[in-house]
Amino acid sequence: MFSRLPDSFLQMNTIFISILIEALPFVLIGVFIASFIQMYISEKLIARVIPKNRFLAVVVGSVIGVFFPSCECGIVPIVRNLLQKGVPLHAGIAFMLTAPIINPVVLFSTYVAFGSNWEIPILRVIGSLVVALIVGNLIAFFYKGEGLKRKNC
Fold it and tell me: Does residue 149 lie in a domain region?
């Protein structure tokens, strides 16, 4: 049955299924963390944790990504729930930019991929933090809205 299909289609199908199987656990982790945030983290707790100072909020949003072992596709539901709970948009975007890059799983795989050398993972962390700080502060400076927080009607 599959012998009539071109080899390129079969290769594409194999690659697609491989990516799907590889990404699924991280998406599920992201959904479980987002669900936990939705159910158990109150807006009051977030207000106490996130500083009122915009620059410090961006710094906290950037650094806290270390604790979330999720990829880009899994971090989106987490950030969405954080924004709905009252995290400022500038801190949420900074978190979204760093969390997939500086979590321990990614850093260790980068370490192994580059021949057990810590130079590249450290440069990766520094680069992502610089980008997140710049983008987060630009958003804090130019955007004054409520982000994605739902308004009560």
Answer: no
